[in-house]
């Protein structure tokens, strides 16, 4: 995907990559070096340049040695962490809901038993 980043025919993919990189404050799949060899970087004047979405300012591209660069952390790590977090939250909600249903059934059974006898 990063090979074709910035190409007009891949505008939707490039936009999605920019969104992930901006939101996750990350760059590339493993790190910003993933842009080495990309078509986007091939037309840039500086091989240390990275897309604006890899930069904290989010307004212009930055170089790998600037303070504005977010390229140390790859987006795969960020996405995996986010998915894992949502998984654990979902698991907690399901277990809590199951416990609540069990508790309500138990209380209902006790109340019905008291009313019958």
Structural description of this entry:
The chain has 117 residues and is mostly helical. The chain is built from three helices and two strands; from the N terminus they run H-H-E-E-H. It has helices at 11-24, 39-42, 75-116; strands at residues 49-50, 62-63. The protein has a two-stranded antiparallel sheet. The radius of gyration is 24 Å and the shape is rod-shaped. The termini are far apart. The mean pLDDT is 90.
Question: What's the arrangement of secondary structure elements?
Answer:
Elements: H1 11-24, H2 39-42, E1 49-50, E2 62-63, H3 75-116
Antiparallel strand pairs: 1-2
Question: What is this structure, in a nutshell?
Answer:
The protein is 51% helix and 3% strand.
List keywords for this structure.
2 strands; 3 helices; 51% helix; 117 residues; mainly alpha
- Main sheet: which strands, in order across? 1-2
Which residues sit in consecutive blocks of at least 5 with pLDDT less than 50? Answer: none
The chain-level mean pLDDT equals: 90
Name the shape in a single word: rod-shaped
Tell me the series of helices and strands, N- to C-terminal: HHEEH
Sheet with most strands: 2 strands, antiparallel
């Amino acid at each position: 995907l990063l090979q074709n980043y910035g190409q007009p025919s891949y505008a939707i993919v490039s936009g999605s990559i920019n969104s992930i990189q901006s939101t996750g404050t990350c760059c590339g799949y493993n790190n910003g070096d993933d842009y080495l060899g990309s078509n986007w970087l091939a037309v840039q004047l500086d091989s240390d340049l990275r897309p604006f979405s890899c930069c904290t300012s989010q307004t212009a591209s930055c170089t790998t040695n600037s303070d504005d660069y977010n390229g140390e952390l790859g987006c795969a790590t960020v996405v995996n962490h986010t998915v894992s977090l949502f998984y654990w939250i979902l698991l907690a909600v399901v277990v809590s809901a199951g416990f609540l249903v069990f508790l309500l059934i138990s209380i209902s059974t006790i109340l019905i038993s008291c009313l019958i006898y």
